[in-house]
Amino acid sequence: DAKTTQPTSMDCAEGRAANLPCNHSTISGNEYVYWYRQIHSQGPQYIIHGLKNNETNEMASLIITEDRKSSTLILPHATLRDTAVYYCIVRVGRDDKIIFGKGTRLHILP
Amino acid sequence: ETGVTQTPRHLVMGMTNKKSLKCEQHLGHNAMYWYKQSAKKPLELMFVYSLEERVENNSVPSRFSPECPNSSHLFLHLHTLQPEDSALYLCASSQDSKGSSGNTIYFGEGSWLTVV
């Protein structure tokens, strides 16, 4: 089973920031939080990952709470092309399993 | 372009056919993976290879047979499949297969398989 909980779906207006929450209350100290997204009929696309500190790259920002039990992915200026299913994943164990949950279906509204 | 290339992108096969899916990664990674994504279901991990050795087999039926001849290539050989095996099959790679190192897994675009 996936170790994360995400809302099933979210809407965001085009041009606004999209904030996608994720709960991972059972995360252990050496487990990373990863975010991927999957646009319809394509393979999952890596977005960002982090351990303790907040991270930012050209696609998004990742905010991790101090207790590491939850995180938020921020797409600063959402476009219609950001419509996708977004997966929050915690790496499980030493053998590098990535277990996908159902993710959040993000709809960007024109 | 993620550096992971899958062929064919679409495959239709009969239940008695033998076919193969091919994956090639151009990233210099040492670990490769096969995932299955059925309609309206989460991705399921099928196989993990590290340095050409299989390190994970998630109770996958024997009609799916993986092969990793070198660290850049991964095959999934298909034989006597069932219609319920129709799905998107995704290949992925990462630097190594150790989870806590924080290394990223990159996915190909997938191969759509239809079994008739």
Describe this structure in words.
- The complex is a heterodimer of chains A (110) and B (116).
- With 110 residues, chain A is mainly beta.
- Helices cover 0% and strands 44% of the residues of chain A.
- Chain A is built from no helices and 9 strands.
- In chain A, the strands form 2 sheets. A 5-stranded mixed beta sheet of chain A has the order 1-9-8-3-4, with no helix packed on it. In chain A, strands 2-7-6-5 form a 4-stranded antiparallel beta sheet, with no helix packed on it.
- Chain A is globular.
- The mean pLDDT of chain A is 90.
- Chain B is mainly β.
- The mean pLDDT of chain B is 90.
- In chain B, the strands form 2 sheets. In chain B, strands 2, 4, 5, 6, 9, 10 and 11 form a 7-stranded mixed beta sheet that branches. In chain B, strands 1-3-8-7 form a 4-stranded antiparallel beta sheet, with no helix packed on it.
- Chain B has strands spanning 4-7, 10-13, 18-25, 31-37, 44-50, 53-57, 64-70, 73-79, 87-94, 106-107, 111-115.
- Helix content of chain B is 0%, strand content 55%.
- Chain B is built from no helices and 11 strands.
- The chains are: A mainly beta (110), B mainly beta (116).
- The interface between A and B is medium-sized, with 27 and 29 residues.
Topology:
The complex is a heterodimer of chains A (110) and B (116).
Chain A: E1 9-13, E2 18-23, E3 33-38, E4 45-50, E5 55-56, E6 61-64, E7 70-75, E8 84-90, E9 104-109
Parallel strand pairs in A: 1-9
Antiparallel strand pairs in A: 2-7, 3-4, 3-8, 5-6, 6-7, 8-9
Chain B: E1 4-7, E2 10-13, E3 18-25, E4 31-37, E5 44-50, E6 53-57, E7 64-70, E8 73-79, E9 87-94, E10 106-107, E11 111-115
Parallel strand pairs in B: 2-11
Antiparallel strand pairs in B: 1-3, 3-8, 4-5, 4-9, 5-6, 7-8, 9-10, 9-11
